[in-house]
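Trying the structure run again after the queue cleared.
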Amino acid sequence: MPVVSAETASVAEKSSGVRVPGWLQDITLALLVAVPTFGALVRPPSHLSPYAIAISVVPVAMMFVRRRWPWPALAACVAWFLVSAFTLVLTPFSALPTGLVLFTIAVRSSRRTVVITALSLVAVMLPVAVLEEWSTMHPLTVLVLVMIGFFAAAGDAVRSRRAYIAQITQRAVDAEQTREAEASRRVAEDRLRIARDLHDAVAHQISVISLNAGVASSTLDGDPDTAREALVSVRTAARRVLGEIGTLVSTLRAPGEAASLEPAPGVAQIAALIQEFRASGLHITVRGEESIRVGIPTVPAAVGLTAYRVTQEALTNAQKHGTQARAHIWMSHDDDVLRLVITNPMASDAALPSDAATDGHGILGMQERVDAVNGTLRAGRDGGTFRVEAVLPLRSDGEEMP
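Done. Tokens:
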């Protein structure tokens, strides 16, 4: 049986039924024991000795101490039963105090302990009951067996029920904690995904804004037309970055709100992405431009989004960290994989994109996205060139080859 905390067991015990105060239980049981015990001693006044009254008080007193000291109370009740058999008189209810104390023990003890205790009581009390029955003709033998067996079984049943309720309560508590942990994990994953998407979607637009703002500030007096074009590019990039942020925030929309109708970017949007970078001053040479322009119908949505974000991040790094403001894209595909290679010139002493800032996560973000679709990514220096190569599968491992 699973380990149940004391707090859970206490809650389960309180919720298992109507709880009668302990003092009221003690008084009720004391009266229940006193009536048949003293009733058997009712005789003419000359037959009521102080000794008999004192002996008869013992089982009544044990009802008030049975919850605190159950084992001494049980021993006292058994001793009273034996003493009464040889000095006073036994009644059909003489085994009742012993049964009530046994019930208290059974509620708190294991089944093995209860069985051993019940058998020991039978071994001690039954012979005395047999002898008393022969002299008084009371069915004491059967009643002793019934009292001990009934209260032992009843106490064990109550203990089992309380343990069952405590176990169910503990499982409910564990399930609630598991749900909370799972919800926290999902929130953390969503935060990481949103942060990654925010970086991929916004970083290159911020670079465009920064670059064109610098051009505008340097040409504002000498070449107003160039400055005006740069400011137009800044405004366009700012509008796009606001749109990207709005799309990301829409993923946090409450249930029931309208979903965004704008599809997630994919392979077909790479051509437009390239035009944006070209407009910002990055000279891009493309091979396989037909595939980029038309798109690949068989590309899954997740793979298409990954290809778009890898291209976006690689071109952003080329614009920010590359030399000569040039980049080269080679894109090819077959039935199985989509290959993307983006290169740009880079000085030998230039910092790598991931080292450009203390919180740079561009290459790491690309790696996480490619890993998510079971692809491979290689990014690093290749002589005087920085090279990003992504191989993205177009089918799952379980699909058969054509």
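The chain has two domains: 6-178, 266-402. Worth checking whether this holds up in the mutant runs.
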